[in-house]
Amino acid sequence: MFGKSVKLFTLFGFEVKVDISWLILAFLIIWSLAKGLFPNYFKGLSIETYWWMGFIGALGLFFSIIFHELWHSLVARKYGLPIKGITLFIFGGVAHMEEEPSSAKVELFMAIAGPASSIVLGLTFYLIMILGKGAGWSLPVTGVIGYLAFINWILAAFNLIPAFPLDGGRVLRSALWRWKNDLRWATRIASRIGSVFGLMLIVMGIIQFFIGSFIAGIWWFMIGMFMQGAARSAYQQVLTRQALEGEKVRHFMKPKPVTVTPFVSIEELVEDYMYKYYFKMFPVVENDKLIGCITTRKIKEIPRSEWKSITIGDVLDRCSSENTIDSETDIIKALAIMNQSNNSRLMVMEKDKLIGILALKDIMKFLSIKLDLDGYEE
Fold this sequence. Notes:
single chain, 378 residues, alpha+beta, CBS-domain, 3 domains, four-stranded mixed β-sheet, globular
């Protein structure tokens, strides 16, 4: 879903990041407010004033999205659900859950926390606007505050649509989950509704495009595509979790992994190992103990003319927690580590001894067979 993100700050223990795509959204919001909405509703102001209103309005929306996602995260924390952080991206924001809610009740409370907070924040902005008008505040100031009240109510209303993964879709999933006591079935129904809603937005975008509203059409189309992708992804995540539930890393690891010693030259490593096994990372072992790792990224830093004279021991890196894992770790946690670190292979350890390699492709092969034999609907 996301590309490169940058950490902005930490709020109540949650990392708040912004995806690079949000910069595009920020510019479009400022431009649409300064050139469209504010000039239409508040006539007679200077061009500079409209641009300042647009800038402050975009900052207010930025704050509103963080406020919305923060309440999801706070409720999740209250019920013991790990939240990695909050990321703003081109279509809004998301609180990163490391696992599914433990019950329909937790799902419900988490889902309604966001829209409820947006409604309350909208009311707060509205009261400030009323008080400001009474105190004689300038039109640009009350205009921006009024916009923030309205946009928070819009944010709440849109998120309450019963289409997964919107908050309303999560409310629907919690109700279906409570009814049938079947998370997979509830997710499948809610996700299908989300996919249909996404298709409706795509069609709406195409219609807008052909009637001349090019920008609006593009946005509806892109949001619809996102909705469809997110709905399918949510269902696949539930299938994956249920199929792999209770499995340990030891089940999937390949024993006796290919290793290298620190005395091998870089040239030998490339010719005899990398070109033979096609791995981008090799464990470096001495006396049966893991002493480091060597990667293609590290090798690219070394001039080719020095490959014969430099050994792996001269340039190896320490193996981080991002590419090592214990053999008794739950496989779901291993997949989370792979996703976060962007590593497709993890070294399986027992204390300081390397006992195997865990490869993403082996997990996926098992998952494919498991889903096929158990008759899960895609």
